[in-house]
Automatic annotation (TrEMBL):
InterPro entries: SNase_OB-fold_sf, Tudor. Residues 78-99 are annotated as: Disordered. Gene3D superfamilies: 2.30.30.140, 2.40.50.90. This is Tudor domain-containing protein 7. It holds the Pfam family TUDOR. It comes from Dermatophagoides pteronyssinus (European house dust mite).
């Protein structure tokens, strides 16, 4: 295997594992909240201190650390539509109807991630401190994304719903087309799951460089393992976005390996807070400040560049 491809897949595994670990952590916290609610509910019933109208029945509103509360019913309605909406379609039903129910419009675009001050983020693939990906990680995003991802995987686990993005006998894929592929893994025991991609570069018939829209990473994928993305899965906004540290520049003309490695050591495997400052027009990068609790990562990188890192 080409060493560059091997390295990119190793980095892909790291990003994917961080996201899955954090998602599982929040899911476990949610389950613990529900169990505690059940215990309180039983205690109230046994004590007879409250009637049925006043007894605590548990809440679907969850609280996690720095972010605001969230209502899971509202999140799911926003993602899949309300059952009261006449245009609402049931994803579970749709997933059982192969091919006849596929809708693929190449002109339909996936909405960009909406970035607000104070959002929780985790780091994706890093090229330099001014060229990297961030992944939105607010609790409400985690809950809704897990629902979305389960629906996506249920749909594409049915091989009748998979149509190759590149047509038979075709020699190329147009760049920037959406698709779906399994996240590559160098570990045989790792679960490979379907995820949304966008073709970045297709230089030969065998492989394509693909941007994993919700995981903030670019990695090569075998072209015959990329499938068309159904329109129902284009409605959910991208979870990751390009970013750059604001007011930070390399000591010389280009970023050194040590400068990039230092930034990675500050940000990797961390739950960070973003303060967006500006959008670089030519490639939609979000210039931002990143905070790790009380640590200003921008300041730390600048101090390192000036040789006075704390």
């Amino acid at each position: 295997m080409d060493m560059e491809i091997y390295y990119q897949r190793m980095r892909s595994d790291e990003v994917f594992n961080v996201i899955r670990n954090l998602s599982e952590k929040f899911a476990m916290m949610n389950q613990n909240d529900i169990q505690m609610a059940d215990v309180n509910n039983n205690n109230d019933h046994n004590d007879g201190n409250n009637n049925n109208d006043n007894r605590f029945k548990g809440s679907t509103t969850l609280y996690y650390g720095r972010s605001q509360s969230l209502d899971t019913d509202k999140i799911i309605n926003n993602l899949y539509g309300s059952s009261d909406n006449p245009n609402h379609s049931n994803n579970a039903d749709n997933n059982n109807n192969p091919l006849d129910n596929l809708n693929i419009n190449d002109n339909l675009r996936i909405p960009d991630a909406k970035v607000d001050a104070g959002d929780d983020v985790i780091i994706g693939e890093i090229n330099t401190p001014c060229n990297f990906y961030l992944i939105k990680n607010n609790p409400d995003i985690i809950v809704s994304f897990m629902e979305f991802e389960e629906s996506l995987n249920h749909f594409y686990n049915n091989d009748k719903n998979r149509i190759n993005l590149i047509e038979l006998y075709s020699t190329s894929i147009e760049n920037n087309r959406y698709g779906v592929a399994k996240i590559p893994s160098t570990l045989e025991q790792s679960e490979k799951r379907w995820a949304r991609i966008q073709v970045v570069n297709h230089s030969d018939q065998s492989t394509s460089q693909c941007f994993f829209i919700d995981y903030g990473m670019v990695t090569p994928i075998l072209t015959n393992e990329i499938y068309k993305l159904d329109d129902r899965f284009k409605q959910y906004p991208a979870r990751s976005f390009k970013a750059a540290l604001a007011d930070v520049s390399p000591k010389s003309e280009f970023w050194s390996l040590s400068e990039t490695s230092f930034f990675e050591s500050l940000s990797k495997d961390k739950e960070l807070i973003i303060i967006p400052m500006n959008i670089i027009d030519n490639d939609d990068r979000h210039e931002c400040n990143l905070l790790d609790n009380d640590i200003d990562i921008n300041d730390e990188v600048n101090n390192f560049i000036r040789g006075s890192c704390s």
